[in-house]
């Protein structure tokens, strides 16, 4: 049963006191099948449109995006493609390759196989894990372990007999959470913008786009500005901040965004990953510079956003850190109203779920 979202004051790990949006999320609200599995197009998925200043809420579909954008508006999209980053060990465990730190150095998570998915496994210890295909994974030390917490993520050494792409094509599968009954192919976890493999999980806010919708948006005078941010695993605990991630903002994207802002056009980020990347490349005045490296930026209402005017995103779990980012974009009153509407309606959560467009 779902309820009206309520504000809760809780202690954010490492950040002091912060407000989070708390609500009950029934299991049936979790989307376990791709929208297109029912014979529909991805861009037919439901989308709630909400305006910060008027508070208006409108029910729509992703295919309706051109109705809510103006010529000259810029959509910032993530070009990172999803890896088959889950490698079954063969003993009931599966290794999730989260973040590549160097040629043989990774952040990984060891989990327990359940159906075609996985559940947390918190009793891993340092040592070597034999992977299929003649590969070795050595768990070295916990990664960013917080006091009193069980170990989920590890720094690890990974030795492969071939290239990463070749190895994962043979032995990897998409990361899936929970005891999933169906094994969807890697293509179900890709977006039309994914060009550069590197994400452990799909940048799912762009999942509703089709090539036809992209063409329609461009024909209507809106512009796409690509960035790349390779996402790590999303199996974070409630309220846990996102970990550092690799990102690139090309010079052409920086120039495009700066010119659009100067001309009074809106910058709409497609997803929290695109938001994190473009905001990481901005100075205090909101001017974007070409950037490449690692970002540990955490966006919330205190820091606010300097570049992004709106965001297309999915529906996030109760007390998730992404809700703080959405509050920075849309404000808390709008977030409460939109989540109340979503919980009262047919909207679905998680990577195969539905969409939320926040506009100024």
Can you describe this structure?
By secondary structure, this protein is α+β, with helices and mostly antiparallel strands. The protein folds into two domains: 10-82 and 186-359, QueA-like (3-Layer(aba) Sandwich), CATH 3.40.1780.10; 86-171. 18% of the residues lie in helices and 31% in strands. It is built from seven helices and 20 strands. The chain has helices at 65-68, 164-171, 211-219, 251-262, 272-280, 322-330, 332-344; strands at 6-12, 16-22, 46-51, 57-61, 74-78, 80-82, 86-88, 93-100, 105-114, 117-120, 127-131, 135-142, 153-159, 196-199, 223-230, 245-249, 267-270, 291-295, 310-313, 355-359. The strands form four sheets. The protein has a nine-stranded mixed β-sheet. The protein starts with 5 loop residues before the first strand and ends with a strand. Mean pLDDT is 91; it is low at 1-18. One of its GO terms (molecular function) is S-adenosylmethionine:tRNA ribosyltransferase-isomerase activity. One of its GO terms (biological process) is tRNA queuosine(34) biosynthetic process. Keywords: Cytoplasm, Isomerase, Queuosine biosynthesis, S-adenosyl-L-methionine, Transferase. It holds the Pfam family Queuosine_synth. This is S-adenosylmethionine:tRNA ribosyltransferase-isomerase-like protein.
């Amino acid at each position: 049963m779902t309820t009206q979202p309520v504000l809760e004051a809780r202690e954010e790990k490492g950040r002091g006191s912060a407000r989070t949006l708390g609500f009950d999320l029934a299991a049936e609200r979790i989307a376990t099948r791709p929208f297109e599995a029912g014979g529909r197009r991805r861009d037919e998925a439901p989308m709630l449109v909400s305006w910060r200043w008027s508070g208006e809420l409108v029910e729509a579909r992703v295919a309706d995006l051109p109705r809510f954008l103006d010529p000259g508006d810029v959509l910032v999209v993530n070009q990172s493609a999803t890896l088959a980053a889950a490698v079954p060990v063969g003993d009931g465990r599966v290794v999730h390759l989260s973040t590549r730190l160097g040629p043989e150095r990774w952040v990984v998570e060891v989990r327990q196989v359940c159906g075609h998915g996985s559940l947390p496994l918190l009793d891993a210890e340092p040592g070597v894990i034999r992977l299929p295909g003649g590969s070795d994974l050595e768990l070295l030390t916990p990664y960013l372990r917080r006091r009193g917490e069980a170990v989920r993520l590890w720094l690890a050494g990974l030795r492969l007999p071939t290239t990463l792409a070749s190895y994962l094509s043979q032995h990897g599968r998409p990361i899936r959470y929970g005891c999933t009954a169906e094994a969807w192919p890697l293509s179900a976890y890709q977006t039309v913008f994914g060009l550069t493999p590197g994400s452990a999980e799909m940048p799912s806010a762009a999942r509703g786009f089709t090539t036809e919708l992209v063409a329609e948006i461009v024909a209507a005078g809106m512009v796409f500005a690509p960035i790349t941010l390779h996402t790590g695993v999303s199996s974070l605990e409630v309220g846990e901040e996102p970990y550092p991630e690799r990102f690139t903002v090309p010079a052409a994207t920086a120039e495009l965004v700066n010119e659009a802002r100067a001309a009074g056009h809106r910058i709409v980020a497609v997803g929290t990953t695109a938001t994190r990347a473009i905001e990481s490349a901005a100075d205090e005045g909101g001017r974007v510079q070409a950037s490449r490296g690692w970002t540990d930026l955490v966006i919330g209402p205190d820091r606010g956003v300097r570049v992004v005017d709106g965001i297309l995103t999915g529906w996030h779990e109760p007390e998730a850190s992404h809700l703080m980012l959405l509050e920075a974009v849309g404000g808390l009153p709008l977030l409460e109203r939109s989540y109340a509407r979503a919980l009262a309606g047919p909207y679905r959560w998680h990577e195969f779920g539905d969409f939320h467009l926040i506009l100024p």
